[in-house]
Amino acid sequence: MPLNGKMLNYLAGEWISSNASDLLSVLNPATGEVLGEVPLSSANELDMAAGAAEAALEDWRRTPAVERVQYLFKLKFLMQDHFEDLARTITMECGKTLDESRGELQRAIENIEIACGIPLLMQGYNSEDIARGIDEIMIRQPIGVAAVIAPFNFPGMIPFWFMPYAVACGNTYIVKPSEKVPLTMQKIFGLIDQCGFPKGVLNLVNGAKDTVDAILDHPAIRAISFVGSTPVARYVYSRAAANGKRAQCQGGAKNPIIVLPDADMETSTRIIADSAFGCAGQRCLAASLAIPVGEAVTPFTQFIVESATSRVVGYGLDDGVQMGPVITKQSKSRIEGWIDSGSNEGAELLVDGRNAVIPGYEKGNFVRPTVINGVPPDGMVARTEIFGPVLGLMPVDTVDQAIALVNSGKYGNMACLFTSNGASARKFRYEVKAGNIGINIGVAAPMAFFPFSGWKDSFFGDMHGQGLDAVEFFTQKKVVIERWPKEWSRRF
Ligand code: NAD
What we know:
Layout: E1 9-11, E2 14-16, E3 23-27, E4 34-39, H1 43-62, H2 65-81, H3 83-94, H4 98-115, H5 118-121, E5 125-131, E6 134-142, E7 145-149, H6 163-168, E8 172-176, H7 183-195, E9 202-204, H8 209-217, E10 221-227, H9 230-242, E11 246-250, E12 255-259, H10 265-277, E13 287-292, H11 297-310, H12 329-344, E14 348-351, E15 370-373, H13 380-383, E16 390-393, H14 399-408, E17 411-412, E18 414-418, H15 422-431, E19 436-439, E20 455-456, E21 459-460, H16 467-473, E22 475-483, H17 486-489
Parallel strand pairs: 7-8, 7-10, 8-9, 10-11, 12-13, 12-18, 13-16, 15-16, 18-19
Antiparallel strand pairs: 1-2, 3-4, 5-6, 6-22, 11-21, 14-15, 17-20
The protein binds nicotinamide-adenine-dinucleotide.
Residues 149-154, 176, 178-179, 208-209, 212, 227-229, 232, 235, 250-253, 284, 385, 387, 413, 452, 454, 458 line the site of nicotinamide-adenine-dinucleotide (NAD).
């Protein structure tokens, strides 16, 4: 656990202080307070983690699945026992409100629960007598050492889209959290330590790009799960694939939401505002473009402006706060730069969240909810992932125009529709090119027993995180064909 504020690595069941000379400060984005320091671990330190994971592999894969999941049951209960402390840690280092932190932790725990079903989920299948005296069997075996490279925006949840399934399937594992938010995993590994996993089954390495490159190049690591921005996802996917590894890489997003005139306008707007401004817009499933159609344009615009203006912004640990800060000063100025661009592209700034100062938190990285109307479809604001509390409005006349706009984007993480008409909903579900679809839902985040299904530039790979896709990803199939002629059996 942090030693004098410095994050530790966890290798082969021991807490180890990194000898990296590069250290970054971990800052509370609301207060500017220094929460600790994170080392940027070297390739050598990653090699030690991979070595520990490799050494643990043979015994772990031979441990029966029903025994492997007992450690996960313990982890689930420990995480529930420490739920509030973990949620507060997420808020302190990541900035979201306490309720948002609780929500992400809950989903982390749900993924452990689903992975505990691995004795059933990783079963193979067989066919007897595919020819005379010949049987064919498909068995699933673990792929080996695997690793996750995580982003900053869900420090408690995202590693759990992968890690519980990986170890339940008999793999050994390395977690590389985002260097911006290393505290939550530090605490979760404190709980993992108490579960008594055999040494080397789960390892934690702090670091940034060089650590990632060492993961991508390490010959013992067979599978990589990445979640982060699209340029890095593309890079990780290509380098992992070039090194012969299995990879699943979730990237960025620009999520459109269509609002039809027959939607319940007040409720829909409240849900859409939660999607756009919740987690300060730093969610890969945040609504960032709203496309009101025809008669929805006027009431939707009016309601969303009210919602954006009245949102309570502040420190996520304070009561009544509905939106926290963005992660860094650089993010704040990048987001404000995009708001400037909106004006420069001819759009109208209906609610301007720039230059926000929250009394008592003057050092925080706050941007207030922002609404930009008439964003040109081919402009940079419509095309770029801003990753902040900024909603662009693109009014159109027909559903077909709205769907065409949705499908013109390069990302495909999520698309949503608000309507009371089943036929419009079905058309939308059928025609829209995105992997996670919401009908009257603002954040279409699949439950742990469904895959998290981004498409296009939001995902590189074949098998997604969570549920059965994760089982598929963390196992390799082996097919056995056996001949046992009757006359041989008769000998016994
Ligand atoms: P990021 O791409 O900057 O960092 C993600 C991880 O990659 C971190 O662990 C970081 O250390 C590492 N990294 C950063 N730059 C690297 C480089 N050049 N080479 C190798 N490794 C590098 O992402 P972020 O800012 O931490 O997270 C926000 C992004 O993540 C947004 O784009 C968001 O949409 C995306 N995201 C996507 C999903 C999804 O499910 N599709 C979920 C959450 C976040």
